[in-house]
């Protein structure tokens, strides 16, 4: 039985896998989508302090700093990822379900290609909201409410993705973990309900047959939970 | 704008925001990009530290200790911590770490190994 800890361990053991996997699950659009997310967030706010949740090697931090020199704290569960990071800056090894930061610390809290690996997605989004004083941005693996889309995305992740990985000379087993994560994911409508519980939605977009969603939200003006 | 990470962190277990900082060694080649500590943190007496390379953060509320290893603050809840690695860290820097952490540190210490 493959669980989310296995995915985290796979990420930790082979940081390169993380990049390739993101490229594959996003049909090689990961960098473009990250850039779009950051540009959209900068359009609605001017964050000076940003938290990159499950930063990997800092791909998102790199894009943010290219757009505007910003103070970005990188946080990841994987020591190897942080040690191999492509940008200088403050680094914190942490679990995204227990973010070790004070309330309202960051102007923007962003996570790309990571929170699908959480055992408790609700808990992660609630933590992201807690430590943000402004915006929250997310790109993650999702699952369409449309059965046909779900079927197509499932086929791609189960068969085609490991096959492409194999052609590229990599171990397909590692990529099969992603399909197992996908299988267990809640539907995008459920993710939407979670984000709406904690944040005011600015944007919730689905891409690639619903297998990727982009979310931008702001702190609720009137907290009701 | 410069910010201090130490002013932003909270204990992942008790959410306490006050820490003692134990410095094991500092960065020789400090630059603004690295983890910075304590220039204006009221809880800390050390005013001249530019960057900690290796050290310990001790939560003043629940008394858990968290290692800073090679500029990375590790602030994991107990269940995510690696007991062996944490103990190795304590053994490696035993002479530079207060006895209270060596013998009674939470969640791990090396009291028995120490005897
Ligand atoms: Zn504590």
UniProtKB/TrEMBL annotation, chain A:
Pfam families: Ubie_methyltran. Keywords: Methyltransferase, S-adenosyl-L-methionine, Transferase. CDD domains: AdoMet_MTases. GO terms for molecular function: methyltransferase activity. One of its GO terms (biological process) is methylation. InterPro entries: SAM-dependent_MTases_sf, UbiE/COQ5_MeTrFase_CS. The keyword Ribonucleoprotein does not apply. This is Methyltransferase type 11. It comes from Candidatus Parvarchaeum acidophilus ARMAN-5.
Automatic annotation (TrEMBL), chain B:
It comes from the Archaea. InterPro entries: Trm112-like (IPR005651). Gene3D superfamilies: 2.20.25.10. This is Trm112 family protein. It comes from Candidatus Parvarchaeum acidophilus ARMAN-5.
């Amino acid at each position: 039985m493959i669980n989310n800890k296995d995915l985290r361990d796979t990420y930790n053991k082979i940081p390169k896998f993380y990049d390739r996997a993101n490229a594959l699950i996003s049909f090689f659009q990961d960098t473009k989508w990250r850039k779009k997310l950051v540009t959209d967030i900068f359009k609605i706010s001017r964050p000076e302090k940003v938290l990159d949740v499950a930063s990997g090697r800092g791909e998102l931090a790199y894009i943010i700093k290219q757009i505007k020199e910003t103070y970005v704290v990188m946080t990841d569960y994987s020591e190897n990822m942080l040690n191999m990071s492509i940008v200088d800056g403050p680094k914190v090894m942490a679990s995204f379900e227990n973010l070790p930061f004070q309330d309202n610390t960051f102007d923007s809290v962003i996570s790309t290609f990571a929170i699908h690996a959480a055992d408790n997605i609700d808990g992660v989004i609630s933590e992201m909201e807690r430590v943000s004083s402004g915006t929250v941005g997310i790109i993650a693996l999702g699952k369409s409410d449309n059965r046909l889309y779900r079927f197509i995305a499932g086929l791609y992740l189960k068969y085609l993705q490991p096959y492409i990985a194999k052609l590229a000379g990599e171990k397909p087993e590692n990529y099969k973990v992603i399909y197992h994560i996908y299988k267990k994911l809640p539907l995008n409508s459920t993710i939407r309900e979670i984000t709406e519980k904690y944040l005011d939605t600015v944007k919730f977009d689905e891409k690639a047959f619903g297998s990727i969603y982009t979310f931008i939200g702001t702190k609720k003006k009137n907290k009701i939970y | 704008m410069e910010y201090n990470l130490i002013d932003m962190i909270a204990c992942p277990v008790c959410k306490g925001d006050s820490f003692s900082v134990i410095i094991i060694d500092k960065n020789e080649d400090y630059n603004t990009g690295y983890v910075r500590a304590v220039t204006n943190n009221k809880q800390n007496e050390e005013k001249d530290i530019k960057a900690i390379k290796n050290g310990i953060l001790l939560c003043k509320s629940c008394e858990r200790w968290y290692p800073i290893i090679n500029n990375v603050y590790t602030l994991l809840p107990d269940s995510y911590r690696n007991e062996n690695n944490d103990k190795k860290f304590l053994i490696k820097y035993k002479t530079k770490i207060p006895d209270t952490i060596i013998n009674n540190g939470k969640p791990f210490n090396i009291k028995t190994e120490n005897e």
